[in-house]
Amino acid sequence: MSIPAKAYTSDWTFLIGQYVAIAILPIVFWFYIPFFRKLNLTSVYEYLERRFDVRMRLFGSISFMLFHIGRIAIVTYLTALALMPFIDISPLMIVFLIGVLCIIYTFLGGIEGVIWTDVIQGIMLSVAAILIFVVICFNVDGGIVEVFSMSNQANKYFPAEQFSWSWTDSTIPVLMIGFFFASLQQFTASQDVVQRYIVTDNIDETKKALITNAKLVACVPVFFFAVGSALFAYYTQNPALLPADFNTGGILPFYVISQMPVGVAGLIIAAIFAASQSSISSSLNSIAACFTSDIYEKLSNNPTSEQKLRVGRTLTVVAGILGVITSTYLIMSNESEIWDAFNSLLGLMGGPMTGLFMLGIFFRRANANSALLGVVASIATVLWVRSATDLNFFFYGVIGTLVVVIVGYLTAPMFKNNLNSSEIDELSAIKDKHSKTEAKV
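Structure tokens predicted for Acetylneuraminate ABC transporter:
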């Protein structure tokens, strides 16, 4: 929903960010996947305790959980936004129903339930995008040629001014840098992605999954941006069909429900629900795994598998409720720039985490206290930048990552390393061994 709305109101420049996510995969293949699989982790933040100390593990895990509660809220809000103007149900009730459904099947199915529902929902979502685009093109006078012609005349693809550097606007150079660090965070420091490296049978299966993902990322987002262009053409030709003071964040479902045949519209709205459930369930499962591994096991004395399962399920419910409450706030504030809000959240929460993993894996001299200083400096810097400057939100993740690495590295000699040299060598050897193995392959 947010991508067509972005293409409808502005242009296609954000599409470039999708390809930046593909470009970082060689880094992930070479350094991170072998490293994480060898460590045999349940939570990726276990590594931070092994490399630094428990404080860094708790910071990484709590940051991840807070970010994904925000993510759940944004996705739930978008789905509620799809129905708010068209059905006689309170938006708060819609949010409640979405939350309950996702909590139930994540509660019962675990990671296997999340993965297989993701497969089904991903197919539904992609087919729906293609179907919507085709239908809109038939309803535009002049068809598909006119859709792209009107977008071109309105300079809605990659305007020349978007190639310039800017500290405040999301121009192409800025979003390429921002998406690089955001994608790095996703693929290297985010439990919901890294847990999928771990549950595959072997490293070849992991790589095959990521390559499949890359192929889909190269194709599917184009249709979502094209849908935004088609909506622009349609409502430019038919401006009277848009209500006054319409929230453009809901432009896609508005067209689907108001202009498409009833049965088809129902299937597409089902696909939107499927997409939201896919995103929410993945976040709920990851939050539960992080809390159980990183906090509950630390506070409990050798808990049994049954106890950990019960706590994980409880956290699934709690996280879902917190996401619903936050989503309620978004509804009351009538937020429309959801894409920007999500990427701003990603930069604020993800940057310090990404920097912490980078510091631990690539800089041997770093230690727990220097890492802590790096994290504190990173959070303070990002919050100051956000409140005192007009710097574009894409820089938040860049600053957060680099400050952790620079401060953590430079201040390391001030402190005694909390790991002995053999422990650091063991962790470094894991990376070196797999790098050599990959080179031979």
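The chain is about 80% helix and 0% strand.
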